[in-house]
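Quick sanity check, Cell division protein FtsX:
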Amino acid sequence: MRAQFVLSEIGVGLRRNLTMTFAVVVSVALSLALFGGSLLMSDQVSTMKGYWYDKVNVSIFLCNKSDAESDPNCAKGAVTSEQKKQIETDLGKMAVVDNVTHESSDEAYKHYKEQFGDSPLAASLTPDQMQESFRVKLTDPEKYQVIATAFDGRDGVQSVQDQKGILDNLFGLLNGMNWAARAVMAMMLVVALMLIVNTVRVSAFSRRRETGIMRLVGASGFYIQAPFIMEAAVAGLIGGGVACAFLVIARYFIIDHGLALSEKLNLINFIGWDAVLTKLPLILATSLLMPALAAFFALRKYLKV
């Protein structure tokens, strides 16, 4: 009987404050969707770091004839076979080096044509204009400076480039976007909590006569508070369900289908469905507990039971 009464009061409360309940559902859904999105963004950045940092190379570009005429680093002329052999020998002696791959100018030209064959510039290039290079795989990508110090400025070396620096800029941008999403999420959570508190108070005020009678006949504080707390919890849970649906739909249409980024951006290792599904219980639990706790503390002061 008590359970039936509580459930009936929940339905009455939700219908009486339909507009505010809808606002609570929308604000909770948006804030928790951003919350889940920020968690998934963190997972995506971590996945990309693990994937790309493992493939990071340090490139030692060697001087060619055209560099000797235009680049101050190659003022002593194009790299000689003795210089190339010495560079390769020195690289082999370094503990931070995992392996070394030599790319000739012909191979560099071939790779350039494969990647940028449609570019107008590709038609004007010749193999002798492409730079030879050593692609160095490090045991630790953080040890780039060791290679740069040893070879930057050496005769026959045009430049030493670290691919990790390019990736750091990308990941810095992604992390900045993630923190921006978290800031918006925090503001939306505050808005959601304020709406929940106001909705509960309006609901309690509209039923002050019933609660007063219940207090007079000796009803417990929890028994009086339960319908209001559960109203907030139900509204929050609906919002959490909407947020979960949004994340699942977004993952499906953005990565797998629709935009199909997983097919168009083969170089990016996207997070899988397991990462999404493991976040859904957390979002649902938050959507249930957050409104319930907000309603509980608001009612303690308002009803004074």
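Posting the structure with no commentary besides this: The mean pLDDT is 80.
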